[in-house]
Design goal:
heterodimer; A: alpha/beta; Rossmann fold; six-stranded mixed beta sheet; four-stranded antiparallel beta sheet; 11 helices; B: Methane Monooxygenase Hydroxylase, Chain G, domain 1; elongated
Chain lengths: 280, 230
């Protein structure tokens, strides 16, 4: 039997008629993404139930929860990756800077440049390191000449913390890099098109601890410029990298709040049981 | 409470709590005995207390090591983290109670050599019962995870303070009346102060239990109108 949404949200809903309330982002950071009433269906099966959340600008929000809880599904709603799945149907609204991402006037290709994505398994194109980064800016027409493109490639690789390791072999294949380097290359590729939001779906699950630490350090630097949302199975990683954490369970957003609060004093017993390893 | 998926982790946490409870029992016994040896001028008991203090010190070190190991190996969060940190903090408060009981026992050895001052040692005994009662209650609150009981102990801090202040005045009166009693009275004054501090440790433990169980600080302001004298 599906569980009810958390009480705090319905309580807030009562105090703000006409609008479904979400666990509020504390005053300070402005809201980049505002999702309301998100329901997702894969054919007959419902994967998400009435998800409502505010995601803050220039900060890291992590989504945690057991496998199949809907966290990746929700992540994929934010740049309409679910459009690519024919049986998938999304209802509700996701606004980025007040604009509905599902609006007919929004070109999903442009949206995905604004909302970049990094996956669990590094997926560089089977091309050179240079081409991996240059591809996006070129097709989006962000550079007018070779010099400008070179500059974008270099700055993107620098911001991804990879430049020093690859500057002397830019024309070699991206697939020849180590797993951690490939993941940073993919992040450089995402940064190159000047996104506003970066979605990461378990970006470190295939990496060793040092490569993981480098990605986490990178995430911490990137949050000064971007809104970052990360799905992770590692509770410790969520605690380390994010300022806010959202816990999903059985397709519902159970609780979201400041990461330090979530890990010292979660409000919902399901969150408590999950993060302390008591599920089942 | 739901069981941990990794059973050994749950067992380690339970073991840590049990060790703190055991240490609490010993600390409480030390304090109770220290009051007896003042009241009954029992030199043997005083020497026993002094000898037993090492045991408490050792238990505190063990609990701290176990908690550090648990943090390193299990990375506890939420209630488990609060429980682990609470175990460490409570054990250090208990260790201090033990030190204060030992100090009372040392003074009992000196006071026992002088003339008995029954009315004063009676007052000390009464204050001692009050303090040990609080210590017992707070340890019961810990073992039964009863936050209301801990809050009850916290609210009763005032009684001990009032007792201490009246005993302070009583001792001053004696010393002024008969300077030959100054040595004993000075020792008894420290005994009273030690008891008052044991009461403070009970209050600290109540606060730690409150945070452990609720994740919230005790924010209510307790009335305090006697921050005076020694």
């Amino acid at each position: 039997m599906p569980m009810n949404r958390d009480d705090s949200a319905s309580h807030e809903a009562a105090s703000a008629p006409g609008e479904q309330a979400a666990p509020a982002v504390p005053s300070g950071p402005s809201i980049k993404i505002r999702a309301r009433d998100i329901n997702v269906f894969y054919g007959e099966k419902q994967a998400l139930f009435d998800v409502a959340i505010d995601i803050a600008e220039k900060s890291v929000t992590s989504f945690i929860g057991p496998s199949g809880c809907g966290k990746s599904t929700f992540l994929r709603c934010m740049n309409r990756m679910n459009d690519t799945i024919p049986i998938c149907r999304v209802t509700g609204s996701i606004e980025m800077d007040g604009e509905d991402v599902n609006d007919k006037s929004i070109d999903p290709v442009v949206l995905r440049a604004r909302v970049g994505m990094v996956f669990q398994k590094p997926n560089p194109f089977p091309k050179s390191i240079y081409e991996n980064v240059a591809y996006g800016p070129r097709i989006h027409g962000l550079a007018t000449g070779k010099d400008e493109l070179d500059a974008i490639v270099e700055s993107s690789l620098r911001r991804a913390g990879l430049w020093d390791e690859v500057s002397d072999r830019l024309m070699q294949p991206g697939t020849g890099l180590s797993g951690g380097q490939q993941q940073r290359l993919v992040i450089a590729r995402a940064i190159a098109v000047g996104p506003e939001v970066i979605l990461m779906d378990e970006p470190c699950s295939a990496l060793d601890p040092i490569a993981t630490a480098k990605i986490e350090e990178l995430i911490d630097e990137l949050r000064e410029q971007f809104c970052i949302v990360i799905v992770t199975h590692s509770m410790a990683q969520a605690a380390r990298v994010s300022q806010r954490t959202a816990f999903f369970h059985m397709g519902r957003l159970v609780e979201s709040g400041a990461t330090d609060e979530m890990f010292t004093n979660p409000r919902d017993s399901r969150t408590q049981d999950y993060i302390t390893g008591r599920f089942g | 409470m739901t069981q941990h998926t990794v059973k050994a982790y749950g067992d380690e946490l339970n073991h840590l709590t049990a060790e703190v409870a055991r240490m609490g029992g010993l600390a409480e016994a030390q304090v109770v005995d220290s009051i007896s040896c003042i009241a009954r001028r029992d030199v043997n008991l005083a020497q026993n207390i002094i000898a037993h203090d090492d045991k408490l010190d050792q238990m505190q070190i063990d609990i701290e090591r176990k908690a550090i190991k648990l943090i390193a190996l299990r990375q506890p969060v939420a209630q488990d983290l609060r429980r682990t940190v609470a175990a460490m903090k409570i054990s250090s408060n208990l260790e201090r109670c033990g030190d204060l009981a030992k100090n009372i026992a040392k003074r009992a050895l000196v006071v026992s050599e002088a003339e008995p001052m029954t009315p004063l040692t009676r007052s000390i005994e009464r204050m001692g019962h009050l303090v040990t009662g609080r210590l017992k209650d707070v340890l019961d609150a810990y073992t039964s995870s009863n936050v209301n009981r801990a809050v009850g102990v916290w609210w009763r801090d005032e009684e001990v303070d009032e007792h201490y202040n009246s005993l302070f005045r009583e001792l001053l009166t004696y010393m002024m009346a008969d300077p030959r009693t100054i040595t004993s009275c000075a020792h008894l004054l420290f005994v009273a102060k030690n008891l008052e501090r044991i009461g403070d440790h009970a209050t600290n433990i109540a606060e730690i239990i409150h945070f452990e169980l609720t994740g919230e600080d005790m924010i209510t302001h307790r009335p305090k109108h006697s921050d005076i004298e020694a």
